[in-house]
From TrEMBL:
Residues 1-28 form the signal peptide. Heme c binds at C66, C69, H70, M189. This is Cytochrome c1. It comes from Lichenicoccus roseus. Binds 1 heme c group covalently per subunit.
Amino acid sequence: MRPPTHLACKSFLAAGVLAALLGGRAEAQQLQALPVPPQDWSFRGATGRFDYASVQRGFAVYSQVCASCHSLRQMTYGDLSSLGLDADQLHDIAASQPVPAGTDAAGNVVLRAATPGDHFRLPYANEAAARAANAGALPPDQSRLAGTIQGGPSFIQAYLTGFRDTPSSVTLGPGMHYNIYVPGNAIAMPDVLHDAHVRYTDGTRATTPQMAHDVSNFLAWVAQPHLEERHRLGIRVLVYLTLLLVLVAVLKRRVWASVRI
């Protein structure tokens, strides 16, 4: 699947993301990962739209759970305005996050409150610090995760709900966890979602499947923030081409109507 080039790159990125997630394999045996259950996402199709209530809840899951390990390097706090947040909400969210603002005279990093124009705060100072905190595994950036990993948001949702107790017949490597949806069933990331782990302000019950669905929706939106604009543009182009075809057909009939054979 090398040609075209952009597909080969996408496949390479997906493999790299999955390798970063896995971080190792089961020592005793390689088990077959279960197929990812299909999901009916609202944003699929030419007229698909994001479920913004779910996306907002997914942001709550990311900020309260995922952000401690995973970055969103390509997102600014101001980008959240597309979720329907007003200027005051954006300011409050950004101001709650300390970001680097250079160093002082002694060389120590100085922190300041973020602004809507700042990119999301990085959870670790550098890659070495990230690996040291995660038993050698590097938590992948989630900016484009839903668009690069095989299975997309459906895989992310399945993965987050796929943790199980390790069977007695399986021996995992140090720091590994058993997950039925990943190759070899061995994953470096632990099970991080538990019922009521996150508080939803809209009253939705924060069960593990609900949180997994919402954060997968959020990451799908992060990976394709302009998806709905492209859908609307595509519909306009189709309408324009249809009208143009009708006009050309009418013009053709009028031109040839005066021609006698």
